[in-house]
Amino acid sequence: MTIETAYQALVFQAMNTGVEVLFYPPVTTSSRAAFYLKAKAAAERVKELFEEVEASLSRFRPESELSRLNRQGQLEEASTLLYNTVSLALDMARLTNGIFDPTILTALEKAGYDRSFELLGQPAFTSQTGFSFPTYNGYREVEIEPDHHRIRLPFATRLDLGGIAKGMTVDRAAALLRKDGYKNFMISAGGDIYLSGSEPGYPRGWRVNVQDPLTLADDFRQLSVHNSGVATSAITKRSWFKDGKPQNHLIDPRTAKPVDNGLASVTVTAPSTTLADVLAKTALMLGPQEGFGFIEQQPGCSALFRGLDGSIIQTARLPLENW
């Protein structure tokens, strides 16, 4: 039997990470050339989707709709994209009892993440005006009204949607490809991945290598994933020093400081990439014991925990391959 080689339709940069779109052609495809041409066009639409989301939701772009909301404190007739993303972020905050909190932007900037990650270490530039003291767990006071897509933020509260926008965009891209009739494909955006269908000759799904956050080896563990999202949250990649102290991009809303509980990373599988992304961040902030219990309570989800001390903890449903 001949095993098909995955077709890498497109690789591009968006949301400060590499995005990759892979397809496997169906067995019945009579013209591989026609399939590849169509798949390339579909991947270009995925790229356009990522560019659209980043232009609207990036906190690093002063002209973005999110930046306008943060400056003004409210928006009337917000775009469907912004309104739905804010609504989804609030749903995830409620699911995690505020451990995932889109209103921690001030604390994130205080930790030093005040510009796009590749610019950290350069002199800061900020266009923020007005009050900037933090309002933790302010998500409870964010008001949204569906009739006019009205969004109102609590006093001195600003949103960071970076914790949800990437996973959500991966899911939207997957829906776009399924609507076009594709079944066996992968969309990867940094640590956020959606895997549809399966690899040829491998009915269990796709084999996904999990990177070790301590050694950066790509064969730390291998998962079998089918029609699901996978996301990894780690403190070892987006980290920096401020005032001589190590910092990372995961702000625990209970302390308003970067998470520091002995965990290096958490990898989660879930029915959607958005959910996997949010749960990975939440479990990492909750720590190895509370985070483990939290994931075990989520239907259809599993997790792999890696400690800074080299420890490994995994939930019972983790779809491990060859372990």
Could you name the key traits of this structure?
alpha+beta, 30% helix, eight-stranded antiparallel β-sheet, T-fold, 7 helices, 323 residues, globular
Task: Explain the overall architecture.
By secondary structure, this protein is of the alpha+beta class. Among the domains are: 1-59 and 161-192, no CATH class; 60-160, ApbE-like superfamily (T-fold). The protein is built from seven helices and 17 strands. The protein has helices at 32-57, 65-72, 80-95, 105-110, 162-179, 273-286, 288-296, and strands at 7-14, 17-23, 74-75, 143-145, 150-152, 185-189, 192-196, 206-210, 221-225, 228-234, 239-242, 245-248, 251-252, 257-258, 263-270, 302-307, 312-314. The strands form five sheets. The chain has an eight-stranded antiparallel beta sheet with strand order 1-2-6-7-10-15-16-17, with helices on one face. Strands 3-5-4 form a three-stranded antiparallel beta sheet. Strand 1 (7-14) and strand 2 (17-23) form a beta hairpin. Helix 1 packs antiparallel against helix 5 (162-179) and helix 5 runs antiparallel to helix 6. The longest helix has 26 residues, at 32-57. The radius of gyration is 20 Å and the shape is globular.
Give a short overview.
This protein starts with 6 loop residues before the first strand and ends in a 9-residue tail after the last strand.
How is the secondary structure organized here?
Elements: E1 7-14, E2 17-23, H1 32-57, H2 65-72, E3 74-75, H3 80-95, H4 105-110, E4 143-145, E5 150-152, H5 162-179, E6 185-189, E7 192-196, E8 206-210, E9 221-225, E10 228-234, E11 239-242, E12 245-248, E13 251-252, E14 257-258, E15 263-270, H6 273-286, H7 288-296, E16 302-307, E17 312-314
Antiparallel strand pairs: 1-2, 2-6, 3-5, 4-5, 6-7, 7-10, 8-9, 10-15, 11-12, 13-14, 15-16, 16-17
